[in-house]
Design a protein that fits this description.
The complex is a heterodimer of chains A (about 220) and B (about 675). Chain A has about 220 residues and is of the alpha/beta class. Chain A is built from nine helices and five strands. Chain A has two domains: about 80 residues, no CATH class; about 80 residues, Glutaredoxin (3-Layer(aba) Sandwich), CATH 3.40.30. In chain B, about 25% of the residues lie in helices and about 20% in strands. The chains are: A alpha/beta (about 220), B alpha/beta (about 675).
């Protein structure tokens, strides 16, 4: 996160994104989002709209998308709020990319459960494939960030790539996923452990085994 | 009125008070960084931790905790001491130890509080955070590594100034305070964030590395850059005024001052008139005082003499000049330099009667002919407060960027006689309606039209709570205006009467906005402090003292009488204005009845008793009926906020502000 910076404002950036406007489809969506908030509180829509704008930029660039300064200004004007407040929000949340991003945004979780289950190997794997934290790889394919907990601790270690989570990874499984993405395929999201469907216990349940045959909970149904 | 116990002492606190305020009422000092009386509560510095029972068994942030009945608050327990030490240690983790080269040193909250509440030493030996410097314009110098993220500056610009230009980017340890894309802060009150900053992150750029606070002599003064009469503290070292800071006065300026009031003081050392000059063969030649008075003594004006007072002179100077020409048999005195000729029979009709603190409570306000942001930035802050409380504001005049919304009704004075129905409804239904007439709306029948509105909407009334309400206001721009009007500095036809009288000698008291070509036949004696427009037209220049160099009485646009002290001596041969006028009396061979400043002041108070007591002068609440019709396109008199008076025009800082902030020039930053 320390590597986050706002892409500086430049004439080239203005030329490329200065005339950003909603596509017809997104204009509808934006209107719908704004209408969810009470009159006079339209500013509350800044977060969904930033996401929408990031996705529109992403669709144009075939990446996860990012938020150039002119796009943030467009949102500020759209919601009639000061630009600095939009930039504050965009720079606070790491899910908004505030600098250009590669085709795939590889976010490796490095928090304790993932680390205990081997996220260091994943980081090493990424590094060996030429990824560098906060940078886009030379082929423009990979952006790489180490992130904090993504809430998939039951299937640690995990990696989030664009909108999908890949869980139960090992170095080999991650390589397989990345290779498939590089080939243009769409690997199955979720757990990569062939023995698992989702985050059910691996093998026999070890916790709450007594509950399998009989309900010991205070609720009648469990 | 909840009863709480602070360190074992039971006290009553007002409803809605916080625990911090309760502790202050009990006389306990609570250290704080983010909490500020005039800003919203943020609760993010955690320095104000106290122990409160009942409550969780841990220290609580007192600034954000309401005081409730039966609370037991401890500010002296071991837990509180430890908590403060802990918070202070965390704050100092990323704060550089550069106090010796920091301009805040000696008046730094962090420095003082770490001595009072911190541990003796740090246990942190990792690398400290470093943050790149941010550009915030020609007035604010930043050193963001020192920032402790109290967000006072962000809250000031959003809540008080009303211009969202400062924000906090990124998060956590990486949080950075900056203006949008590092543009310069463009608000007229922007430099107040320097006073708010509890550390040395935002410091004064013009004052950078000039002095330490303990070297400065502090004098209480009154600002003369506009007619609001902000209370200031003049900090001087030796003979030079180094900076001006606001003083607290809830009735006038709260604790803010405009950037012009704060930063025009470097103009006090530039373009100064420091010796007398005489015009010989069309050229101004330096002379001694004796030569100057000898030359004046030969003029023999008799009663053919007039006085024009400038915008920044004090009442004593004006009174002394009035006495001088009075002794010669003339009453030709005028202060409205630009030729205004509104009626001054009733001073209540040309006064800001609602008062600044009163206007906050108005619920419908009509502003005519005033760009308030430039003519009285401090009033603009009050208007914003009024709007936040629900006031409706309507404006007549060319559009300017208000910080409080408001509806522009048109650019012509005739709108006053023909208000839209919605405005009429708003003003008639309001409990506390107010009308503010700016300088641009006083002429061409505007004042009379405004007074007619006062009658129509019953602006002078008794409120339900028994207090009196006077909603008729005139907003002046000159610090000397109300004092001048009280002393009779107004002719019926304005300055045209002086032109028509063709006085043999015209005394100009720091008058720099007058069209002197109309006085081609007069000997112009300029008594002032800067070589500005007035001095260029003068035949005799007598160097006088600026507002920091003399004691004086000023009356602000509310009719508030305030006294200012002398901070430094005038440079060179310049003398205080009243001594020059006293010496002129000798040169003209008349007596004026005073030989010392005290005698002068006593004589003035004897003539105008209201000038003898600090506070609002009573002009009565009876307004003339007004009437007639006003017409004419409104044009605001101030074209450049930073260049409105000779001191500001001489100031390099103000020139730079004007060029960079108003005219968009890109000035290269010199390498530091």
């Amino acid at each position: 996160m320390a590597d986050r910076y706002i892409e500086p404002d430049s004439p080239e950036l203005r030329a490329r994104w200065g005339n950003f406007a909603w596509t017809a489809e997104n204009a509808e969506k934006a209107k719908d989002i704004v209408s969810r908030y009470p009159a006079g509180r339209q500013r509350s829509a800044v977060m969904p709209l930033l996401d929408l704008a990031q996705r529109q930029v992403g669709a144009e660039l075939n990446t996860q998308g990012w938020l150039p300064i002119p796009v943030m200004e467009y949102i500020a004007a759209y919601l009639d709020m000061p630009v600095i407040r939009v930039v504050e929000v965009a720079s606070f949340y790491t899910m908004y990319n505030i600098a250009p991003i590669g085709r795939f945004h590889v976010q490796v979780c490095g928090t304790t459960p993932c680390m205990l289950r081997g996220s260091d190997d994943l980081l090493e794997t990424c590094k060996s494939r030429g990824m560098k934290k906060g940078h886009i790889s030379e082929d423009g394919l990979w952006s790489f960030t180490e992130v904090e907990c993504m809430g998939n601790c039951a299937s640690a270690p995990m990696v989030q790539i664009n909108d999908d989570n890949y869980e139960d990874l090992t170095s080999d499984r991650l390589n397989a996923v990345l290779d498939a993405l590089a080939r243009g395929e769409t690997p199955k999201a979720g757990t990569q452990d062939p023995a698992r469907h989702t985050v059910e216990p691996v093998g026999e349940p070890t916790n709450l085994v007594a509950m399998i045959t009989e309900n010991h909970d205070y609720r009648s149904e469990w | 009125m909840p009863k709480v116990k602070v360190d074992g002492v039971e006290i009553d606190v007002p409803n809605g008070a916080t625990v911090l305020q309760a502790c202050e009422l009990a006389g306990k000092e609570i250290p704080r960084f983010c909490y500020h009386e005039r800003l919203s509560i943020a609760g993010n510095c955690r320095m104000c931790l106290v122990e409160v029972k009942p409550g969780p068994p841990k220290p609580q942030a007192s600034c954000a905790l309401p005081a409730t009945e039966g609370q037991e608050i401890r500010t002296d327990s071991e837990m509180v001491k430890k908590a403060r030490e802990g918070v202070m240690e965390f704050l100092l983790i990323n704060h550089p130890l550069d106090c010796p080269i920091c301009d805040q040193g000696g008046e730094c909250d962090l420095q003082d509080q770490s001595v009072a509440y911190g541990r003796g030493a740090s246990r942190y030996d990792e690398n400290k955070r470093a943050v790149t410097e941010k550009y915030m314009g020609p007035l604010i110098k930043t050193q963001m590594t020192r920032c402790i993220h109290c967000t006072r500056c962000v809250r000031f610009s959003e809540e008080i100034a009303g211009v969202d230009e400062i924000g906090a980017l990124y998060r956590g340890e990486n949080m950075q305070i900056t203006t949008y894309l590092e543009h310069a802060a463009k608000h007229e009150m922007s430099a107040n964030v320097i006073d708010l900053c509890p550390v040395g992150a935002l410091t004064s750029r013009p004052y950078a590395f000039e002095a330490r606070p303990w070297e400065l002599k502090k004098t209480l003064g009154i600002d003369v850059s506009d007619a609001t009469g902000a209370n200031i503290r003049i900090d001087a070292r030796g003979r030079e005024v180094l900076r001006v800071l606001p003083r607290n006065n809830d009735d006038v300026n709260e604790e803010w001052i405009s950037d012009k009031a704060r930063y025009m003081v470097d103009g006090l050392t530039k373009r100064r008139l420091d010796k007398p000059f005489l015009r010989r063969d069309g050229k101004l030649v330096a002379a001694s005082w004796n030569e100057a008075f000898a030359a004046i003594a030969t003029l023999n004006p008799g009663s053919s003499i007039g006085v024009i007072a400038g915008d920044m002179v004090d009442c004593e100077t004006m009174f002394a000049a009035k006495k001088l020409v009075g002794a010669l048999g003339s009453t030709l005195i005028e202060g409205r330099q630009t030729g205004m000729d509104y009626a001054t029979d009733s001073l209540a009709a040309v006064n800001f009667n609602t008062t600044f603190s009163g206007i906050e409570t108005a619920d419908a306000i009509l502003i005519a002919g005033s760009n308030v942001r430039w003519e009285a930035p401090l009033l603009n802050v009050r208007l914003r407060k009024a709007v936040k409380r629900g006031a409706k504001v309507f404006l007549v005049g060319p559009e300017w960027e208000t910080t409080f919304g408001g509806e522009f009704l048109g650019e012509d004075l005739s709108v006053l006689g023909n208000l839209p129905q919605a405005v009429v409804d708003a003003l008639s239904n309001a409990k506390r309606p107010a009308v503010i007439l700016g300088g641009a709306a006083l002429g061409r029948g505007g004042l009379e039209a405004g007074l007619a509105l006062a009658g129509q909407f019953n602006l002078v009334r008794d409120l339900e709570d028994g207090t009196k309400w006077n909603g008729f206001n005139v907003l002046h721009m000159a610090a000397s205006r109300m004092g001048g009007l009280m002393l009779g500095y107004a002719q019926k036809g304005g300055i045209a009467d002086l032109v028509a009288a063709k006085p043999k000698v015209l005394i100009a008291l720091g008058a720099d906005e007058v069209d002197y070509t109309r006085f081609a036949g007069s000997m112009i004696v300029y008594i002032g402090h800067h070589g500005d427009k007035g001095a260029h037209a003068a035949d005799v220049i007598l160097p006088a003292a600026a507002y920091t160099e003399k004691a004086g009485t000023y009356v602000n646009t509310e009719g508030r009488v305030q006294w200012s002290d002398k901070a430094v001596f005038a440079p060179g041969d310049a003398r205080e204005d009243w001594t020059i006028l006293r010496a002129l009396a000798d040169a003209f061979g008349v007596t004026v009845g005073f030989d010392s400043f005290d005698q002068l002041r006593d004589a003035m108070i004897a003539e105008v008793p209201a000038l003898g007591s600090e506070g609002l002068a009573d002009y009565g609440s009876v307004l003339p009926s007004g009437g007639g019709s006003a017409a004419g396109q409104i044009a605001y008199p101030i074209k450049d906020f930073y260049m409105t008076n000779p001191i500001a025009r001489a100031s390099a800082v103000m020139q730079r502000c004007s060029a960079e902030l108003l005219h968009g020039e890109d000035l290269a930053e010199a390498a530091e």
